[in-house]
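Running this now, will post back.
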Amino acid sequence: MRAPASDPPNRLFRRDWAMRVLAQALGVLRADFAERGRASEFDALRLHLTEGTKGAPSGAELARTLGVSDGEARKRVHRARADYREAILGVIRTYTETEEDAREELTELLGAFS
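Update: finished.
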């Protein structure tokens, strides 16, 4: 995601920072899946984490890829999103002192895209 050239430098910095945090968290999550022998599942779920519903395959396509029911595919997406959010907070916690600070940073991170 590239910012328009007209964005002020502070906004560009915030967006770049947010993208780096998200990429680091995604790497942590991928490593966790790989450690559990589920790297291919992560690869199938990744677009549901990073693209939302626009760029991701349909639930039925995901279910076929994973070899599970549609309902189970939805559960796995939901669980992966929760794990991704926790991984993002984990990255943020490495440089904040309190949980309140981490939550404020998460809000700031999400605001970098609005």
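DSSP finds five helices and no strands in the chain. More later if anyone needs it.
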